[in-house]
Structures
1.
Amino acid sequence: MIKKLLSSLREYKKHTILVPVFVTLETVLEIILPTVMALLIDNGISKNDMSYVLLVGLVLTICSVISLLTGILAGRSAAIASMGFAKNLRQDMFYNVQRFSFSNIDKFSTASIITRLTTDVTNVQNSFQVLIRLAVRAPLMITFALIFSFRIDAQLSLIFLAAIPVLGTGLWLIVAKVHPMYVRVYRTYDKLNNIVQENLRGIRVTKSYNREEYEEKKFEEISHSIFEGFIKAGKRLAFNMPLFQFTFYASMLLLFWFGSKAIVGSGNDPVLGLSTGKLTSLIVYDMQILMSLMMFSMAFVMVIISRASAERIVEVLEEKSDLKNANNPVCFVKDGSVTFENVTFSYAKNANKTVLKNINLSINSGETVGIIGGTGSSKTSLVQLIPRLYDVVSGKVTVGGLNVRNYDIQSLRNEVAMVLQKNVLFSGTIKENLRWGDENATDEELIRACKIAQADKFIQKLPNKYDTYIEQGGTNVSGGQRQRLCIARALLKKPKILILDDSTSAVDTKTDKLIRQALRQEIPNTTKIIIAQRVSSIQNADKIIVMDDRRINAIGTHEELLETNAIYKEVYESQNRHGVSDE
């Protein structure tokens, strides 16, 4: 896990290495200072030797300035390294998510991925910054401080050795209690993000049903749960400081007690025994040892807290797309013909219930094919196998006479354009949204595609026409306008296969008819697969597929199915009775 995370350091390795170097220099200088202070007190101040005081004072000043500079450099390098590390982590996670197949994405909820990209990365960033500074500084400080203190007085230094396990044991017990609490709290963040995302996405539904209070209560409950989790963990962590203060002041009392006796016994002679200067340096070393242990415990707490975050990040980084190119993938799609040969498909691996079962279907290049069926009849699942958004469990799907597994995935998808049930527009101008289909498309090509999709008329009525800004999700245009823009975007790909997945459901029947006529006239050689709820949207298709219970129930023309298929006939008659059909 650590190796995987550290691979995101890349260009920030230099700063990461410099931090321990600067910290080591800073620590060594801080360790030397108490010893120099002892010399200043014993040989300078006690003997009224001002020249010695000035000389040693100058040395102290120089050491302090250098220590300050190395500390600043260490802090600067640590900040650059940690922020750069976090930037690369987010970038690596985002890039890997872009390569996920639909089945990979199904493993992670959107809210969970957002939490991993934000809160989890921030936790790891903070821990990394603390680790490369405090985790280096604390052990060095403890080691050097003990060595120097034993050189001064071995017996009094035993007080430090007794204090370390007392403080260390107490801190370990606190950490053991706190870690599970933080793990639970950060898991709750996923639920919080999910509630916020769900509420914002369905804000119109919430307001139309007057459910604001209910949503507020849901948010308040999950927010309060996070609050209580942090409070509970914070109460345990609050014992850190009292424990430190108890250990520190207890060791100070013991030092003063035994130290004062030793000074009196030696007559404050630094040669014969303990002196005031040596006792002063011992007190400083005691403070450095215990403070370092405290800092080390804080670093340890942060690492423990971020461990769950690190594991969640690595899960995303190590997730590999289950759709891979063949060894020598084909990059050219000959035509828009499609066949399904004994295809069985399931979204979940080893699932008992399949979504599609024994599908056999042949579509010629340039044909217009309609697909109709009840909700849950697997219409969308069927067409998603054509651009290889998912892989079949058994059987095979061919495009242009070749198994889709043998194509380069990007090349295959460049030749298959899908307009999904859920229309997605991004924040930006209409031109920018349309050029998702072809980033190099000219203005004339944009207008032609929009005319085919019957979108040009409403665009021309907008104040800025094709430069009109679209809000995130297309919230400032109607559902029908979003659908037409999405169709135009797909047409700009100039695909060999065009799949419209119930993508004219929000437009009126007259506009729907005009779109179908334009598609028939303007792109006659493109294979058009139209999933629809309205019979009028597909009744002029070359063939119509009726889906029912995960299978193909029937295939035929409009007239043939009216005579031979009960499901199609029932749908047609029910829609005609209610005036849905326009033809």
Note: The first strand starts at residue 338 and ends at 345.
2.
Amino acid sequence: MQTIDWTIIALYCAFMLGLGFYFSRRAGKNMESYFIAGRKLPWWILGFSAAATYTGAGAAPAFTMLVFQNGMMGNWWWWVPFAIWMPLVAVIWAKLWRRLRVVTTAEFIELRYSGREARVFRGIYAMFMSLGFAVLLNGYVMGWLIRAMAPIFNWSDLKVILLSTALVLVYCTLSGLFGVAYSDVVQFLIFFGANLILIPVILSKVGGLNAIYDQVVSRRGADFFHALPPHGEIVGMTLFFLVIQGLFYASSPAGGEGYTAQRFMAAKNEFHAQTGQMFNAFITLIVRVIPFLFLGIIGVALLPAATTEPDRVWGILVSQYSLPGLTGLLVAAELAAFMSTIDTHINWGSSFLVNDLYRQFVKKKAAEKHYVLISRLATAGILLLSVLVGYFLVEQMMAWFLFINSVMVAFILPLSWLRFFWWRHNIYGEAAAIIIGLPLSYVIWFPLGFSQTDKHPFWHGFLLLFALGWMVIVMVNLLTRPEKMEKLKEFYLKCRPPGLWGPVRREIQGEEKRALRTENLRDIIDCLLGIFFCASSIGGLTTLFSRQWTLFLVTMGLSLVSGGAFLSRWRKRGVFKSL
């Protein structure tokens, strides 16, 4: 690290602080402005912001690690479920959440369920989301920041975390979701651009791309470049349960619910929410991964597999091959990725503490300025807890990668469909899933040793939790009373969800029934086209990097046909005109 590198990092930090102060007045108007940006965000901000949130401090080292460890198949661990849930959420869940006009997903509880139980559980749910899921997600991202920055700075883990979170604390507490969303765009562009520049810099020092490919084949064999599943570890039951995860991931706080749903609630209308999510899918699945497929391949060619920690490959490449100035830009890029995720998580987590706990149970009637102040204090508190988790708990990054992206939510995955698609699902089934799911997932994965994939294949732990989730939730639903018909009808008319709503639909006029049936059929076709487009686009990317030209032409042809059909159908519906 030279003076020019520190200067670039200092300029980035100053820019972020300035952004926080710029948006502080708009965010400080009221709680809606602070947590959902006054419902004024356009589709392109939503897409960039969501993609930047998924592109946390773990993105660069994690994507590079997956290629370094498992070749071109490595990133299919998350590509398989993401290629399914992202278009599903864009077509169905984005508009459902926007129609509800809530501030948090905890507020959904009292819209969907009735009685005193719903009000009490809204507070319990808020605690699990804010002090459970949000804190664990942040701790995981901080663990990756340590792996990325330590080889560059030669600092202690604690020093890396404290200095990085101090900047987030200032600008995020000031600016709320306005600052979070708009800064995410800048942060993503810095992150992507800096890592893209690194590739030709390294290649110029090591003899070019052809030399790298030859070296990889000599070290790992041609099988390293196998591009499409099923193959390697992603076969049979593992592949099956990754598909299952994708079908149900809309209930995940890291997927179609949580901070993703927060973006939908902040959209100008439901069409902005839907288009923003599809734009997010394209950036998340394709664009942001490109630099790290290169860097993973380069790492295999240049670094000894036996003595290199896979989760530190990205940091090692930066420390050994970067140039003065570029190193500072890459550090700023990694800080940008870290901040774009952490700021979202802590803003989202504090929204539960204030909107669903403090405002409901502590101080019901106060000035909006008071709630904004409490929101800022809650944001700082969640960040402090996250630092403790990241420093003391997060180790063995591949185990944590699978836990955060799959295992943590396996028990609660049925909620994604039951909440919106089955009238008989009630508050007791919801409570059983949330209260049991997170603690049980942690215990099974870590203390009981299911994270040791040399002893237990990935699908063992996932299947156990997913099956237990279905049994517990459905059994509790059937053993307890259904929700009141008045509440179900009110929710159905506001949200207009598809699925098993027979007793409720019988209360609705015939013309509205036909319109809903037409909408549901249209959505099913759009979902299938969206999934096909995402999966074939990823296939095109991996076959391009594997230099399998026939497969590349086939997958890209499928991508163009399915994507064109999808866009044509949305254009005919008037989606793009409404933007």
Note: The first helix runs from residue 3 to 27.
